Each structure stands twice: as C-alpha cells, then as structure tokens.
Amino acid sequence: MEKEFFLLGKEPGATVVHLLGEKSKKADNMDLWVWKENDTSEYTIKFAYKILEEDAQGDVVALYKSFWRIKEQPSSLFTAWMVMEDKIATKANLERSGINLGSNICCLCEEDEETTSRLFCACRSAWLVWSKCYEWVGWASTNHWEPEKHFINFKLSGINEVVNQIWGCVWIAVVEEVWKHRNKKFLKMVG
Q1: 127 vs 8, more confident
Q2: How many angstroms separate the first and last alpha carbons of the chain?
Q3: 77 assigned to some structural domain
C-alpha cells in the first residue's frame, strides 16, 4: 500500500480519505483530545501529577487506617510503623545518618547489607519465620521485599476483618521479635 502512495504521486492522507470515502471526512469538525479531569478541559502536567498524588495518598491512607486499627501494644505498633516508614535504626540507616559501625552486614544472616527491607523481609532468618506463619494457617505466599507491601500482602483473603486484625497482630509481633532478636545479636557483636 505504501508503494501505491508513491506510485500514484498522491499524499498518503489524500489516498486514505479517498479509500474511506467522502462521508467520513468532516471539514467543519475538528478532531481533538478533551481532558475531563478539570474545568478548563486542558491537560497540564501539574494537574495530572496532582491526580496521581491524590491516588497514591488514598492508598497510603487506607494502608495506615488498617494498620492503626490493630489492637496491639503501642510500643510494638510504633516499632512496626518505624519499619514500614524505613526509620528503624538498621545499620544502613545509621550509616546514612553518618554513624559508622564498621560493618553494615545483616546481624541475623551475616550475608548482605542490613537494610530495613533486608532485615524484616528478605533475610533468610526472617523469611523462615514468615514461612512458618504461612504454614501455620496453611497458606502459600510470596514475600514482598518492602515492609509496606509485605504488610498488605500478609492479610488473608476471603477472611473477615476481625480475623485479619488478629493476623495483623501476628505481623506486628513478628516484626517486633525480629527487631528484638537482631538487637540481642548486635549487642553481643559490639559488646
């Protein structure tokens, strides 16, 4: 078809209009995109970014609403919240703050850098604990490497909210115990 355009000496647009027929051509109507998300119908990057930001904030609000509804010890909730916010004093976070500990290797598995994601989700020791939790309820799952996503994924599907609240307590308790165990090992290493 492209060869025909050049052979006929016509512009491709004129040939397409001819092939489609004159009825499809409307000279008085302009073809345009309309942005329906604001009053002016004009697309702006600023407004698109605002929509994306509001959508992301909605997800975060829903996450933390379900998190803070869990009936758990305030200190455990605070520790788990610090983990989800990546504010817990892991070796990587301490190093980023200018505190040099000499080695930033994970205290639990001694294999990789001790980041929040590594310590609570990807570390072999933590992974074994999460696997036992899943095994306990007869559930097969993959572990997310980010604590927020791990918390969201830890919910049991098809189960009522009360049971998921209890399951959320299990998640927070595991995070708290992993942190306590890490601190004991860390203090033995530096002491």
Answers
A1: 127
A2: 79
A3: yes
